[in-house]
Amino acid sequence: MKILPITHKTLAEAVAGKLAGSLLDGSLKPGAQLPPERELITKFGISRSTLREALKMLEKYRLIEARPNVGWFALEVDEGNLAEAKELAGASRDQAERPARSEPPTGPIRLPIASEKPIHIPNLSKDRQGTFDFISWWDRDKVRNAKVLVIGAGALGNEVVKNLALMGIGNIFIVDFDKVEAANLSRSVLFRETDNNRSKAEIAAARAKSINPEIHVQYLNGDVTTELGLGVIRRMDAIIGCLDNREARLAVNRFCYWMNKPWVDGAIQELLGLMRVFVPGNGACYECTLTEQAIRDLSLRYSCPLLARQNILLGKVPTTPTIASIIGGMQSQEALKLINNLPVEPGKVTHFNGMVNTMHTTAYSPREDCESHWTYGDITELPARVERTTLDDLLRIACADLGLNAVIELDHELITKLECPNCHTVEEILRPLSKVSFEAGHCPTCGVLRETSLTHVITGDEPFLHRTLASVGVPPLHIVRAHNGEEYRFYELSGDLEEALHFRHFDSSMKVVVTTPRVRINDRIKIKDKETPLVIKARGRVRLRD
């Protein structure tokens, strides 16, 4: 596979570029103190972690310096740092010149007119997407090549999938862990009576393919919080959440922020609904919208992790097909705008009240201390698979990168053992929390709920390092993080790519090749152990690009 460089810059690089530009044009004088961090955060509309990453970048290039207990001060631009300053400033201009798909409009919204779009008169008797060519901003190639992830295939998900198929979105990935039941038929356009007890994701994908045979679909019958690899989200153009609980929304929000991907959330109940777009680094995210009480409620539910897990699966929301159509249509439209680089309003929520037919939009306030505001940096693609790679294999790669004190952080809690407080019997489990039911947490002898031992950090002292990543709950094409207390590394199990992301379900006549984002190769790591004949060539750190 040919690996090519990618030009997209991170948000921190864009901020560093703007500050470097201020040094170059003289608006920031040598020796002048930079504004306080809080003022810069407000000015740029970014998180504190992003700002500090930008400041560290400028400090590395000797463009600013930190004075303890005082602040940051500008340095003189001379021959020693002029090239770096121009490089950073150029990166900022490049980002500014690109059409910003996520910046909220500041005045009246004007639809772009693509003057370069050639005049094309479609054959409406044969071309099912022909009328879309009459829309000035519609880019058929972008729509046809777009990859959209739909999480949740209930009432909202049905409407979204149906709309995406009708619009000709070329590649649709549907995720849901639930099965069809009779009560779904009153509000889910894609389901039939004969689908009872079948996978919602599978049925929705099959019906989308029947609506538009020209599209490509894929489905996953699983829980998005634990069974979808971050490498899938990394390769999406937009993510649409059709969820019914806070835990799943919070997980999707963090996954999208880590991968620097926009997502569209929707929620419905009876005749009420809301829709909102979240774009990392631009306005509030979903976690920013949670009240202190909601955060406390989530914490209380996790005081008993097995019961918390069980409660998540019980969410049932009464709704009507009409509100599902309205909000699902709005979500699909926002995804289409993201694909075509049209302006959206991130960090805002649009409420629809079907009781009185009113609609209003309000803005959320971003929280500076929000735990979701963290975007993964460089990613190393490993030609490894979760079914074959052990914890020890990955830990040795991390140690080669970060030193012998490197540890691996899992995204989920791993139950190591269950201990009965009565008879003190201990059962070794070593299974993800998602795979252990509340009932299984009870002692088979005493019948009382056993104490749960959990971990999500692998240090190298564990007796189960021989276990594969898949056996401890790491999904295919996932990105696992490691750190040494000072620095992080991110490793993708890219050997799973062909099977984890293919868009070939219900399409045996054609193979769709899904390429990995282009990367730049810096160095190679070769690790070989005498006891374990493992040889892994780990490509140099890969910067995520759009």
Topology-level CATH name of the largest domain: Rossmann fold
Rg over C-alpha atoms, rounded to the nearest angstrom: 25 Å
Give the helix tally: 16
Strand count, sense and barrel status of the largest sheet are: 8 strands, mixed
Which term fits the overall shape? globular
Proportion of residues in extended strands: 15-25%
Strand order of the largest sheet: 5-4-3-6-7-8-9-10
CATH architecture annotation name of the largest domain: 3-Layer(aba) Sandwich
Structure description:
By secondary structure, the chain is of the alpha/beta class. The chain folds into three domains: 87 residues, Arc Repressor Mutant, subunit A (Orthogonal Bundle); 232 residues, NAD(P)-binding Rossmann-like Domain (Rossmann fold, 3-Layer(aba) Sandwich); 166 residues, no CATH class. The protein has 16 helices and 19 strands. The strands form four sheets. The protein has an eight-stranded mixed sheet with strand order 5-4-3-6-7-8-9-10, with helices on both faces. Strands 11, 12, 13, 14, 15, 16 and 19 form a seven-stranded mixed sheet that branches. Strands 1-2 form a two-stranded antiparallel sheet. A hairpin with a 4-residue loop joins strand 15 and strand 16. The protein starts with 10 loop residues before the first helix and ends with a strand.
